Amino acid sequence: MRVVLYPILVGAVLVATPVALASAQASFTIGQVKSYPFPNELATARHSSRIAYALNEQGRRNVWVADAPEYTARRLTAYAVDDGQELTSISISGDGTHVVYVRGGDHGSNWAGSSPNPLSLPIAPKIEIWSVPFAGGSPQRLADGDDPVISPRGDVVAFVKERAIWTVPIDGASPAKKLFSANGDAGAPEWSPDGLRLAFVSGRGEHSMIGIYTNDSTALRWIAPSTSRDVSPKWSPDGSRVAFIRRPGAGGAPDSVLSDKPTKWAIWLADARTGNAHQLWKSPETLRGSVPGTQGGPNLMYGASRVSFVSEMDGWAHLYSIPETGGVPTLLTPGRYMAEFVSMSADGRWLAFAANDGSDADDIDRRHIVRVPIDRAAPEVLTPGAGLEWTPAFMGDGNAIAFIGATAQRPPLPAVLSPSRGITWIGADRIPADFPTAQLVTPRKVVFMSPDGMEVHGQLFDAATNTSLERNGKRPAIVFVHGGPPRQMLLGWHYSDYYANSYASNQYLASQGFVVLSVNYRLGIGYGRDFQHPKDAGARGASEYLDVLGGAAYLRALPQVDASRIGIYGGSYGGFLTALALGRNSNLFAAGVDIHGVHDWTDERAAPLLAPRYEKPADVQRALDVAWKSSPVSSVATWRSPVLLIHADDDRNVRFTQTVSLALRLEKKGVEFEELIIPDDTHHMMRHANWVTVDSATAAYFIRKLGAPAAVRSTKATRP
C-alpha cells in the first residue's frame, strides 16, 4: 500500500511529544482525564462542503457543524444536562440546509427497549427525530421514531416507527404520516437517487424481502421474493437497479454449535421496474467466505457501474468490487490489514475507509484513512504517522475527506483533509484547559505468546514513576481485557466512546504507578479472520482465556512488576474474562473488577438457544456441559481473590441476573466481594457521571487491594 503525505496546516493541533518521567507521575484526577470531548456520528453534505457531528462534552450531547473554508466549529443545539440521551443518525440534506438527528435510545444494545432513563425521571424520555437549520435556529421535533433518511431532494425524511415506514417534511411543516401498510416489520429505508421511490426491507420472521414503494396509487413492488433473508438494498446511481444481499432463511436441519460451518451469502441484482433479479456473486462455501464479522459486515455499496463489498475470503476483511454486468470480483485492498468504516464518493468512483496499515510496523494497532478507486487495486494511505484516524466521509466537492482523528495523548477531533490545504482540525478549543494532555503516556505495542502458541498483541501503559520506595523497586500491575469480543484496543484514543473511556481509565491507572497491559485476545478484530474465529472459544471452550494467561505471564516477567500484585479488570466480555481469571487462577490474579460481565453461558446464551438446534438430546447436554465449563460460575469453588462487581440494572446487552447469580454464589462460597450497582443506566453507562463513578471505584479498589505504588500514595487518587 502506498503512503501519501499531506501537509499539516500551521495552527493545527500539535501532537504531544513524550514527556519527562517526572511529569508522568499522578498529577491529574479521573475527572480531568474523563473531561475530553468525544465526537462521533460524522456526516457530510452531498453537494456542499459542510459537515455535522455529535459532540459529547461530559454528558452534554449536542449537534455541531462546520463549513468551508475555515471549518470553524459551531454548536446548533443547546442540550445542557448530562441526561444520558444519545444523539445518533446525524445527517445533512444534500444542499446542506438542514441537519437531522435522533435523540434518545441505546443504539448499541442487543435487544430493543424504550429510551434509557438514567436520571430516573418521572416522565421517561422518548426516541425522537429532530431537524435544525444548518444556519442556526430552533430545533424542530419531527416525530417519535428512528432510522431517519433524508430524501435526495432534501424536503422529506423517511423513518421507522411502529414496524412501518413513515415520512415527514424536513422542516416539520406538517405531521408525519405512515407511508404504506404491509405485513412484517418494515425497516432500512433507502431513497432512489431521484427521491421518487423508496426501497425497504420487510422482515417476515424466518425470511425477509426487499420492497419498493412508489406512491399511494401504485402497488408495492416485491423484489424476487423467496424463502431467503434479503437485506441491504442499494440503488444504482441511475435508479434502474437495486443490489441486495441474500442469505438462507432461518430453520432447516439442526446444526451443532460446537462446530463451525460457513454462513453463506450472495449479492443479487434486480431490475427496479420489474422486480426480476439474478445472482451477481456468491460467497465461497468456506469459513473464510462466511459473512464478515467486522464493522458494517459486507458494507454493500453501488458505485459507478460496479458493486463494492467487504469479504474475508482471503483471511482479511478486504474491499472487493464487481461489474454490474457480472464477472470475477477485483480485490481492491490486498495485504495483511482490515477495512473498516467504508464510504463512497458521490460519483461512485472512489471508496474511503479506515485501515490498520501504513508504513510503520505499529500501524496494525492503529487506524489510518485510505482511499482506493472502485475499479482497481491502488489504495493510498492519506493520513500516515503515529496518530489514529477513522470514519472517513467524502465532502461535496469529491476531493476533500472529513474524518475523526486522535493521538496517544490528544483526544479525538473532527478534521477535513484536502489535497491543497492538508488537514484542518476542528473544535480543538473544546478540549478543557486542564485536560492532562502532557501527562498522558504513549502506550507501547507489545507482542507475547499464549500457552498454546498464539501470537497476541497488547498495549503496555507504564508511566515509569520513581519506584525507589517500592518493594525491591517493583510495582503492582493490571491486565485490562476489552469487551465485544470483536474489538481491538489501539495505540491511542479509541474510535468507540465505550473504549475511549477504557483508554482514559488505563491512562489514569498508569498515572497512579500501575503497569497496565491491555490484551487484544483472540476473538478480536484487526489480526485476520482466523484470529477472530478461533477454535473452542466462548461458550465452546473459552480458548481465548489462554491469551489472558499469556498477558499475565508477560507482566510477571517484567522487572518492574511485583508478580504477587497483579489485578485484572474489564467490561462486558472483558468482565467475563475477569471473572474467569479470578475463578480459575486466583493464584495469579490478586484482585479484579468485573464490570457487567457474562458469568453463566448456559443461562445467557446456551439454554434458550441451543436446544432447538439439536436432533439428539445427548448433543444438547454435551453442548450445555461445555458451556458450563466455559463459564466463570463453574470455577467459584477455586475462587479466592476479592472482586468488585459493577453493573447498571437497565443493561440491554448482558442481563443483570448474570451479576445477581454470581454474587449469590460468591457469598455462599465466602469469597470477598463488593458491589456497585447503577440504577436505571444501561450497558454503555449513558451518563458521564456514572462512568466517572465506575472509573473512580475501579481505581480506588485496585489501590486498596493491590497497594498504591509509593511514588503516588500521597496524591488524591480517587477524587473525581
Could you please describe the fold and organization of this structure?
There is one protein chain. The chain is an alpha+beta fold. Among the domains are: 37-144, Tricorn protease N-terminal domain (Neuraminidase, 6 Propeller); 292-436, TolB, C-terminal domain (Neuraminidase, 6 Propeller), CATH 2.120.10.30; 440-645 and 696-712, Alpha/Beta hydrolase fold, catalytic domain (Rossmann fold, 3-Layer(aba) Sandwich), CATH 3.40.50.1820. The strands form nine sheets. An eight-stranded mixed β-sheet has the order 34-35-37-36-38-39-40-41, sandwiched between helices. A hairpin with a 5-residue loop joins strand 18 (229-235) and strand 19. Helix 6 (601-610) runs antiparallel to helix 7. The longest helix is centred in the C-terminal third of the chain and has 19 residues, at 688-706. The chain is globular and about 75 Å long. The two termini are 45 Å apart. The model is unreliable at 2-26, 465-469 and 711-720 (pLDDT under 50).
* Number of E strands: 41
Distance between the termini: 45 Å
The CATH topology of the domain at 440-645 and 696-712 is Rossmann fold
Largest sheet: 8 strands, mixed
β-strand amount: 25-35%
Q: Which term fits the overall shape?
A: globular
Please report the first level of CATH classification, the CATH class of the domain at 440-645 and 696-712.
Alpha Beta
CATH architecture of the domain at 440-645 and 696-712: 3-Layer(aba) Sandwich
Helix amount:
10-25%
Query: What is the C-alpha radius of gyration, as a whole number of Å?
Result: 25 Å
Strand line-up across the major sheet: 34-35-37-36-38-39-40-41
The number of helical elements comes to 9
- Strand-pairing-aware structural class: alpha+beta
Assign the CATH superfamily of the domain at 440-645 and 696-712.
Alpha/Beta hydrolase fold, catalytic domain
Mean pLDDT: 92
